[in-house]
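User: I'm curious whether this sequence folds into something compact or stays loose and floppy. Could you predict its structure so I can see for myself?
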Amino acid sequence: MTKIGQKENRRKRRKTTVGDIMLMLILFVAIMVAVLAGYKIYSIMMEYKAGVDEYSEIADTVITERAADVEEVKKLKDVNGKEVKHWTSPLDVDFDTLKSINKDVAGWIYMEALPDISYPIVKGTDNDYYLHHTYKKEAVFAGSIFMDCKNSKDFSDQNTIVYGHNMKNGSMFGSLKNYKSQDIVNKSPYFWVITPDEAYKYKIFAIYTANVDGNTYTLIKGPGKETIDYGNNMKAKSNIDIGEYQFKKTDKIVTLSTCTGDSATRFVVQGVRVEPD
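Assistant: Here's the prediction. I'll summarize afterward.
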């Protein structure tokens, strides 16, 4: 073999060796990316599972469902001996046990058309902590269902705002978006907030996507014309037909809010408290 031929062979071998190394590097990077992506997905799934398991355990411990034939309205006497009608709660909630776990408990939410939305409601000193902390104060992305820190803990305000994550596995307020369907609303337009002292029933009057800086998040502390104007304005935003309702100065509204995937908007379901006839 000539000297020129030997040089050509060596050049070819060097090119092949460099190409192999580059290919191995690319393959290694691809494997690492896949491993990291898999680990991230696994971590997210484990966080989802941790949140679901915790709230399932809590529900199993403190919730007893009532029999279907239990009287819906009960009559009790007030301090003056006057007979007053009260709703019979659809759930028996052991608030003593709940308080022993977390004293921040304000109530329990239960959606009739979406019974998987059945969770304790907490109130923190800000609106950040429970965004990613569970009822047991574990650091989990799913967080808690929590009321606005500026609201009264007993749901006595004219507009009480309750937040929850729109989880992809349907937990927390992940299934709230199902109220975009008229069929779900027709199934039942009611939800409940059960507190240590009373069971409150709310009729849904508005379902829509709201701007985060819009008037949906107006906190109304006392009764007055502001409540009527607010209720009518929110009802006008609704994308679903809920029927007619004449708002009163004394109405108590609960606004349920969850994320949409767009940082500028939130999906909301609003209900007004109804009293037993």
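Summary: The mean pLDDT is 87. The longest strand covers residues 199-211.
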